[in-house]
Amino acid sequence: MSLVHHAGRHVVPLFVGLALLFGGLLILTVPPFGGSDELYHWFRIQQITDGTLLAERRGDNDWGGPVDAAAVAFDLALFGKIAIDKAPLSAAEVARLAAELDRQPAATVDLGFASTASFPPLAYAPSSAGLWLARALGGDPLAQFLAARAGNLLAYGMTMGAVIGLLPAGRLALTALALSPVALHQAASLSADPLNLTIPLLLAAALWSTRRAAGPISIGRRTGIAVLCMALAGLKPLSPIFALLLILLPGDHMGGARNKALYGGLLAAVTVALSIAWQAAHPFQPGLFWGISTDRPTAVLAALAAAPAHALGMAWSSLASLSVILPMDGYFRIGGHAAPYVFPPGLSLPPMTVADAETAMAGGRALVLLIPALSVWSALVILAALDGREAPDRRGAGVLGTVALLFSALLFAAFWLAYTPIASPMILGLQGRYFLLPAALALMAVSIASRPRAGWTVTLRGALFGALLAANAAVILWSAAYYHTLWDWTALL
Q1: Count of beta carbons in the 10 Å neighbourhood of residue 20
Q2: What is the residue range of the signal peptide feature (predicted)?
Q3: Is the CB of residue 296 less than 8 Å from the CB of residue 254?
Q4: 170 near 443, Cβ under 8 Å?
Q5: Which of 43, 145, 174, 391 has its CA 20 to 30 A from that of 467?
């Protein structure tokens, strides 16, 4: 009972400590450019660190600009080893390469990397700050790379810690999810996901705590909510949908329903307008960039309207396949490339086609991970239900759950229209990490709708929390042991 009490009372420092511990391990163990799309994030982070916040147009559907030549050479040399040669890396050789590149005269290379250059700079602020500090201290490209990862991890630890601290309920479930292998892997990489994940959650937590507060909402709190909401426009294109969370604002604390509608409506409109303005100035079609699709979204829509039966069949096959793949991919996957540099070994997730999904399921390979993954997700839901609040707020829970479902549906639609060829039998490109945010909102919804339990259920809550933390640690340590066979990271210590 004491352990359960202390876990609930001191969960924020517990989270921050474990996030830095296991996230720090992932910073070292996942080889440079072995994380999700780090090849392209690296260029954008370098560009922002140089003071270029707005990428340059290089042609139709192409963005980029000048990037430090040593950083480009470092990127391409390691990425070639990992993605093309698929060979183990020597930390000593990587360190020698970085030192050699650091001695070269300063120069830039003009190149395109539209997949990240078209994104607003906000989500890259933590990694750019880390890289800038390493540069200021005379660090070579390897030191800059590790410092950029560390900047992301620190930002994730602080912002997610603030989210957990603001929650009146559901802290244990959200802590367990935030410490999951995929969440920490993204936080400890060059990905833009740390802020893409935490800023919407911070807005949700701030609105939830405001909903419980007594008396009028202060100017300071209103300003904070406004800043968080408008920050959504500086994240991924679908992020402004979380402005709908403003519905959670209590009308009686805003001076009435009319004032709430004016404040929330104006704030949401400004957020959406800022996002549309950025997307209009930096239009980008991922399917064309990756060579996956030559179809414009308008052509895809016309084809779906002309053959609704095919569209329904495609939607069903996608849901059937991805409902099996995404739970595993959203918990286990560490690394951003094909074998051998993707973890778990022997299983590349997610599949890109129905045939790949069938191959992954052949011989029960995927089922080895499916049962543990479903067990983890089930335990998270049960833990959230046992970690409720004194006065359930089912209306607020409905808002959170609805926004989570809407965002998930928009993810499917976005990849269908912008990334999937018309002739494809299923939607392409979706990954489990994209659904961490709606999963977190769903857990919050379960907690806000539940009452706290007493007696043996308190012990069960503590046992589930401990088991989830142990499972997270086991997977991360397993991945560290696996990557050590490919990347002798201990030589860096």
Answers
A1: 18
A2: none
A3: no
A4: yes
A5: 391
Residue 168 lies in a domain: yes
Rounded Cα distance between 328 and 316, Å, is 19
d(Cα 414, Cα 401) in Å, to the nearest integer?
20
pLDDT band at 202 (very low <50, low <70, confident <90, very high): very high
Q: Which two tokens stand for residue 243?
A: 């402005």
Could you count the other beta carbons within 10 Å of the beta carbon of residue 433? 21
pLDDT score of 390 more than 90: no
Q: How far is it, in rounded angstroms, from Cα 398 to Cα 449? A: 8
Range with top average pLDDT, 50-59, 263-272, 353-362, 412-421? 263-272
Please state, in angstroms and as integers, the Cα–Cα distance from residue 370 to each residue in 267, 366, 430, following that order. Answer: 42, 6, 17
- The rounded distance, in Å, linking the Cα atoms of 100 and 91 is 14
Choose among 148, 8, 34: nearest CA to 89: 34
Nearest 10 degrees: Cα torsion 288, 292, 296, 302: 180
CB 115 within 8 A of CB 286: yes
Q: Looking at the predicted structure, is the pLDDT value of residue 243 above 90?
A: yes
Q: Is pLDDT above 60 for 366?
A: no
What domain count does the chain have? 1
Domain membership flag for residue 35: yes
Cα angle for residues 349, 338, 82 (degrees, 5° grid)? 150
Would you say residue 237 lies in a domain? yes
Answer whether 406's CB lies under 8 Å from 241's CB: yes
Domain ranges, residue 181: 2-288+366-492
Q: In whole angstroms, give the CA distance from residue 73 to residue 83.
A: 15
Local confidence band at 138 (pLDDT 50, 70, 90 cut-offs)? very high
- Apex CA 266: angle with CA 261 and CA 267, to 5°? 105
Instruction: Read off the pTM.
Output: 0.93
Q: Render pLDDT for 296-324 as a digit per residue (tens, 0 to 9).
A: 788 888 988 898 988 898 898 888 888 88
pLDDT score recorded for residue 7: 46
**Residues whose CB is less than 8 angstroms from the CB of residue 21 and which lie 6 or more positions away in sequence, other chains included:** none
Q: Which residue has the tokens 């560490």?
A: 334
The answer to whether residue 355 sits within a structural domain is no
Query: Maximum distance among all alpha carbons in the chain?
Result: 68
Residue 350, pLDDT > 80, answer no
Q: Is the pLDDT of residue 271 over 90?
A: yes
